Amino acid sequence: MIATRHFSRRCCVSARLHFGVLAALAGTLSALPFSTQARTQTCFIVSIHSGDTATARCGDATNASAWRRLRLQGIEAPKPGQPFAEQARQKMHDMVRLKPADVDCDDFASHARERVCRVMVTPDSAPNGPRTLDAGLALLTVGLARWQPAQAQRLSPQERGQYEFAEEEARAKRAGLWKNARPARP
């Protein structure tokens, strides 16, 4: 009988310890700089402002809050008037305009003028498939945007690696912005 009580106490202590470890882990994960909880909405991209900025309608078109100005996370495309600005805007237009998109933003409740978001669309190569094309990553891959380490806290470690690699590969191929030895900063 004594051994049983000792065993049950050990189990309770062990369970409390495991619960404490799980609670600490949950607290640590919530403090991480990248979002562990997706805030995804399906939106319709209605206009393109530049290579990294668009307007989307998310929900009821008659509701003013349904219209959102989005900035692609983790990248910066050339501004109007800079070299490759029109090519970046056209590439963004070809990829996302008038298409439904999965838009993943940090905070839809915010009333900020622009929201930094990931925009996922269906690639032209698979028009009936899932939305697997990351517009920001695609612009980096063809050399029409720069990866922004300052926005890296919004990305997971895997995404940071993908974005950084895409820019390095575009530089190596001398694609888009990287045709110039010293490309202008957007």
Q: What proportion of the residues form beta strands (DSSP E)?
A: 15-25%
How large is the radius of gyration?
22 Å
Q: Tell me the distance between the termini.
A: 75 Å
- N to C succession of SSEs: HEEEEHEEEHEH
CATH topology: OB fold (Dihydrolipoamide Acetyltransferase, E2P)
Q: Within the largest sheet, what's the order of strands? A: 1-2-3-6-5
* Helicity level: 25-40%
The global form is globular
Low-confidence stretches: 17-37
The secondary structure category is alpha+beta
Integer tally of domains: 1
Q: Which CATH-level-2 architecture?
A: Beta Barrel
- Describe the sheet with the most strands: 5 strands, mixed, barrel
The total count of helices amounts to 4
Q: What's the total number of strands?
A: 8
Key features?
186 residues, alpha+beta, OB fold (Dihydrolipoamide Acetyltransferase, E2P), five-stranded mixed beta barrel, two-stranded antiparallel sheet, 4 helices
